[in-house]
TrEMBL record:
<feature type="transmembrane region" description="Helical">
    <location>
        <begin position="167"/>
        <end position="190"/>
    </location>
</feature>
<feature type="transmembrane region" description="Helical">
    <location>
        <begin position="202"/>
        <end position="224"/>
    </location>
</feature>
<dbReference type="Pfam" id="PF13386">
    <property type="entry name" value="DsbD_2"/>
</dbReference>
<keyword id="KW-0472">Membrane</keyword>
<feature type="transmembrane region" description="Helical">
    <location>
        <begin position="86"/>
        <end position="108"/>
    </location>
</feature>
<feature type="transmembrane region" description="Helical">
    <location>
        <begin position="56"/>
        <end position="80"/>
    </location>
</feature>
<protein>
    <recommendedName>
        <fullName>Urease accessory protein UreH-like transmembrane domain-containing protein</fullName>
    </recommendedName>
</protein>
<keyword id="KW-1133">Transmembrane helix</keyword>
<feature type="domain" description="Urease accessory protein UreH-like transmembrane">
    <location>
        <begin position="11"/>
        <end position="217"/>
    </location>
</feature>
<keyword id="KW-0812">Transmembrane</keyword>
<feature type="transmembrane region" description="Helical">
    <location>
        <begin position="12"/>
        <end position="36"/>
    </location>
</feature>
<dbReference type="InterPro" id="IPR039447">
    <property type="entry name" value="UreH-like_TM_dom"/>
</dbReference>
<feature type="transmembrane region" description="Helical">
    <location>
        <begin position="138"/>
        <end position="161"/>
    </location>
</feature>
Length: 227
């Protein structure tokens, strides 16, 4: 795996992990609703795992589609400015995400408006899987809820678009999804301890600066290549 891809995967994993407050705000109500309907405490982990597995699968599928669309420009001669432009946009989004994590700039949340129309068409299907009685229903509900409009998801999806292939796009979104996993699956297990970490202002600032640094380094590489 190329070093730059590894850096990008680590960056988006941090975005998912330390963007946990946003993720819990977006999906925490869904997880809580599922929890209230479940049988004994001993079986709850399998339901939450199934829900999150479905959600992350949808992220990976969206990333593969975005990566494939971005990669299609590689097949067209003379489209290097487009490829370079996508790379610049992807790194700008990393900078924006880093600033979001650091609590400096909240603009990425405005991107959620882009998916509202699609979600209005998908949301009614969720009624087919409620109330949740089997892990398979939780998985299907999670797969559907993976398309919920989310500024963080859409911002990382732009990075997937510029990743160069369907595989890299899927890997980018998978890394992000795995980053969100601890916050959501652990809500009823050790959420209090985890939230102490994710809400710590210095942890968020340092992680935000690290993510923004990855984006800034990518932009610097473009600038140096153009000299």
């Amino acid at each position: 795996m190329a070093p730059m891809l590894e850096q990008s995967l680590f960056a988006v994993f941090l975005v998912g992990l330390l963007g946990g407050t946003h993720c819990v705000g977006m999906c925490g109500g869904i997880v809580a609703a599922i929890s209230l309907q479940l049988p004994g405490q001993g079986t709850r982990f399998s339901y939450h795992f199934a829900y999150n597995a479905g959600r992350i699968l949808s992220y990976a599928i969206a990333g593969a589609i975005a990566g494939a669309v971005g990669a299609s420009t590689l097949l067209l001669k003379g489209f290097w400015p487009v490829q370079q432009g996508l790379y610049v946009v992807a790194n700008l989004m990393l900078v924006a995400l880093g600033l979001y994590l650091a609590g400096v700039w909240q603009a990425v949340t405005q991107i959620e408006r882009l998916g509202v129309r699609l979600w209005r068409r998908l949301q009614p299907f969720s009624k087919r899987f409620l109330p949740v009685r089997r892990p398979a229903q939780a998985f299907a509900l999670g797969a559907l809820w993976g398309w919920l409009p989310c500024g963080l998801v859409y911002s990382v999806l732009i990075s997937a678009l510029a990743s160069g292939s369907a595989y890299s796009g899927a890997a980018t979104m998978l890394a992000f999804g795995l980053g969100t996993l601890p916050n959501l699956i652990a809500m009823g297990l050790f959420a209090q301890q985890l939230q102490v970490l994710t809400k710590n202002i210095w942890v968020r600032r340092m992680a935000g600066l690290l993510v923004a640094g990855f984006g800034a380094w990518g932009l610097a590489r473009v600038a140096l290549a153009s000299l």
